[in-house]
Amino acid sequence: MIIDIHNHISLKSSPYYLPVDEYLKAMDECGVEKAVILGKDYGKLGDRQQSNLPDEETATFVKAHPDRFIGFTAAHPDRGVEQNLERIERAVNDLGLKGIKINPHAGHYPNDERLYPVFEKATELGVPVMFHTGIKAPSEGTRVKYCQPIYLDDVAVDFPDMTIIIAHAGYPWVEETILVGLYNGNVYADISTLTQIEGVMGFEVMLPTLQKLTASWGAQRVLFGSDGIFNMEETLTAVKSADFLSDSDREKILWKNAKEVLQF
Ligand SMILES: [Zn+2]
């Protein structure tokens, strides 16, 4: 089995929108059984750009193929406590979504205390929270200073029973990710998009990052994620070709750890 912990859909109104069948085709070709579709709330910035993803669109994918897709909702400090909590409760209890995505590059630090009620709710519901970290998504108005993983130490310490996923392993701040995870057993990292950085920057990122993470943490908190169906095959090839991983490490990274995080 292979589980992709980090995937996205585009808004139905967007020119980049791909129907569910395109996802299934790519997943089948790569042998990926399940993919997590992440929520997106960039707060007021996203409202202006009309880029926020309503949970209903995520739920459409999950409802069409509940055995293949797992959906996450999203939260942003701009919404205020009440609206964030209402959204999360509805997403988890009514729409069957199973986690929360936070996008700090859209204007706040990951340890922003306005999100603490969200983290309390996540702990209560037993759902994981993924934070975008590292390189910023290429959208206008986002800021890379909010993407350092070190701020997640506060969140991990204050919410020891909440599962935290550091997306993109915090690259290029991988040492910060490692440090935060060394002291906090509730911290995981996904390796999504690292092959893409390799392509853009013209040097190797994925394998050294994977090696550093597994050498420091072991393989049990490292998660396979693609960041999109177009990166799926390349990311899988990287994991499969990493000669420093044992077969048991590879199993953990490709699905066993994700199964634990997603609790199914
Ligand atoms: Zn992503």
Structure, explained:
The protein has helices spanning 20-30, 43-49, 55-64, 80-94, 116-125, 152-158, 174-183, 194-201, 206-217, 232-241, 247-262, and strands spanning 3-7, 34-37, 69-71, 73-75, 100-102, 129-131, 164-166, 187-190, 222-223. With 264 residues, the chain is of the alpha/beta class. It has a single domain, classed as Metal-dependent hydrolases (TIM Barrel), CATH 3.20.20. The strands form two sheets. The chain has a six-stranded parallel β-sheet with strand order 4-5-6-7-8-9. Strands 1-2-3 form a three-stranded parallel β-sheet. β4, α4 and β5 form a beta-alpha-beta unit. α4 runs parallel beside α5 and α7 (174-183) runs parallel beside α9 (206-217). The longest helix is centred in the last third of the chain and has 16 residues, at 247-262. The protein is globular. It starts with a strand and ends with a helix. The model has no long low-confidence stretch (mean pLDDT 95). The structure holds zinc ion (ZN). Zinc ion binds at residues 6, 8, 227. Zinc ion (ZN) binds next to loops.
CATH fold title: TIM Barrel
- Physical arrangement of strands within the biggest beta sheet: 4-5-6-7-8-9
The largest sheet is: 6 strands, parallel
Q: What is the CATH architecture term? A: Alpha-Beta Barrel
Number of H/I helices: 11
- Structurally, how many domains make up the residues? 1
Would you tell me the structural class of the helices and strands?
alpha/beta
Average pLDDT, rounded to a whole number, is: 95
Q: Tell me the number of strands.
A: 9
Stretches with pLDDT under 50, minimum 5 residues: none
What is the CA-based Rg, rounded? 17 Å
How would the global form be characterised? globular
